[in-house]
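Proteins fold reproducibly. Take a tokenised chain:

. . .
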Amino acid sequence: MKSDEKYFPDNALIISPLMSINPEWIDFNGHLNMAYYSVLFDTAFDGVCVELGLGPDYAESRKLTTYTGEIHLRYLREVHLDHLIYGTFQLIDFNEKSMHVYQELRHEDGWLSATCEGISLHVDMTGPRVAPYPPDILANIENLADRQSHLLQPDAIGRKIEVRRKRK
């Protein structure tokens, strides 16, 4: 996707513009440090927020914003300095105060590098406290849910963290 295109393509799966890797993000192992996967996921999510009406202008004018409540990252394939990455976004569920989201980071060639499942909370910054979305924003989220209703739920959703053991 070109950097000037909107995040919401006709196929309903939201795809970010390509993102590059900063040299200072590369760790001593020669690949992207784990912390910067979160930066890339967050950057991709910021674009979705703007399209939903939840961007910087929303925070400034309404004193409402989103906070991350919880995330679960999976690292599947290394990313290196010369790679270009894009993010995908799928709304899994929502209520009047939060969204359950699923994102993937993919190399420009399409292979999967990482996944992120999370809960995004709507926050009144004057508290701060979790608060209901205003009707116009909730309508935007409902519209996105309708547009994505035909998408299959990813297999990676709801995975628990555990040490796998062989059965005796």
Notes: The first strand starts at residue 14 and ends at 15.
